[in-house]
Specification:
Distance between the termini: 22 Å
Helix content: 40-55%
Radius of gyration: 18 Å
Number of domains: 2
Strand order of the largest sheet: 1-2
Order of helices and strands: HEEHHHHHHHHH
Number of strands: 2
Largest sheet: 2 strands, antiparallel
Strand content: under 5%
Structural class: mainly alpha
Length: 171
């Protein structure tokens, strides 16, 4: 798992405030945030151009995503997310590795296909999830309603899914 926050936090002992991103390793290589994911490697191991890091930098933080998923489960029951992710999302996402693992996969997976591979989703579940995203992207919320998602839940769910779509999740 990429822990973006640990590297993006200002490291006052090793890095200057103008270059708060510390490349992993023993050497003290610090770069400005503007050089993250800019197409030119600045860290010795190209870590600053790692696709998972670059994807995670565009997405909501993992903790925020995990909290959102957990809130949905707490409010609507342990099988609520089965409506989105398929049968493997039963029992509070345990068959998929739990809330934290799903949040990490949503944050770090560049595309929906990558997400499916990370969580070993069946093709039918992945196709269903794509349909949900396409419906949200096109503004056709009738699919979400047909899945049993209430009007009061639509805005939050749409906001969350829109964030993923806007960062290339469907590409």
């Amino acid at each position: 798992m990429i822990n973006l926050l640990s590297y993006c936090a200002v490291d006052t002992e090793r890095c200057r405030p103008t270059e708060p991103f510390r490349c992993p390793g023993k050497e003290n290589v610090c770069i400005s945030i503007q050089y993250l994911c800019d197409g030119a490697p600045d860290c010795k191991d190209n870590y600053d151009e790692d696709p998972r890091l670059c994807t995670a930098a565009k997405r909501p933080p993992i903790d925020e995503t995990a909290n959102f998923l957990q809130t949905l489960l707490t409010q609507h029951g342990p099988n609520y997310l089965e409506k989105l992710f398929g049968r493997k999302a039963r029992d509070a996402l345990e068959p998929l590795g739990g809330v934290q693992k799903v949040a990490e996969a949503l944050s770090e997976s560049e595309t929906l296909e990558d997400f499916g591979k990370a969580l070993h989703l069946m093709r039918s579940d992945l196709d269903h999830l794509r349909e949900v995203f396409v419906a949200v992207e096109s503004g056709d919320l009738s699919l979400l309603k047909s899945l049993g998602i209430k009007d009061t839940e639509l805005a939050d769910l749409k906001f969350f899914l829109d964030k993923l779509v806007s960062t290339g999740f469907l590409d």
